[in-house]
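Predict the 3D structure for this chain.
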Amino acid sequence: MGRATGHVEDSRAARELAGISPSDYSEALERGLAVFEAFKTPSAQLTQADVARTLDLPRATVRRTLVTLTHLGYLAVEGRTYHLTPKVLDLASAYLISNPITRILQPLCERVANEFGVSSTVAVLDKADAVMIARALPEQSVTLGVGLGYRVPGPQSALGRVLLSVLDEADRRERIIASLTDMQEEDMEKEVSRIQNAIAGAASDGFSYVADEVDLGFHSVAVPLLRWDGAQIAALNVGTTPDKISAVEMTGPVRARLQEIARQAQPQLI
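Done. Predicted structure below.
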């Protein structure tokens, strides 16, 4: 086994705190899954050295993982660079097929998108990110490559703030800090406080409206999706530019309609 990097040591320390026995844990599998994470870049074409540097892992470890994933068909190699193949979608489709909720939410997104003529998304929380599990565009629109599995920073997005609103304050704070990088401590505390207040507002208001935080010139309103028993399981939004739907419309009639649609869907979400 190669040298233990800081990444590996941190992972081991976290497992010790969780009480997981080393004999019950596969570090090889962890590294293999981490390689998939490394390819979430605009270029998506990486060399062995790129992956090793991104993951802070030994080159020999990365090489074995890349060769294995290539043999299994999840990666393809061209010269010195690797890229993901469509087979990785099998991993996501297993979740989407096995989860009956997603089969309900995709048609829901399509209905919302066509009603308002803008994009509609359902997302769930994963650490500090809101992850899309259903998404639709109006019939006249053309997708620009943002779809299922796409992530947006939770604390800065309407979807994320709705999802974070059910967590306790300490948990929210930890996830907010994880989303903030390259910020002075004093500025970070101000930003954490601002976002905490916005999330608290989403909890009390039953919706979140965000403009120009994830993308300039783009705004979104999101509402919670509740399971039949009242537990929040996801968030539903619409997003567009202010010239298509104004801020007043977003926070008024559009928000009210989304809340109505969410209430109608609740009995089906089991």
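The chain has a mean pLDDT of 86.
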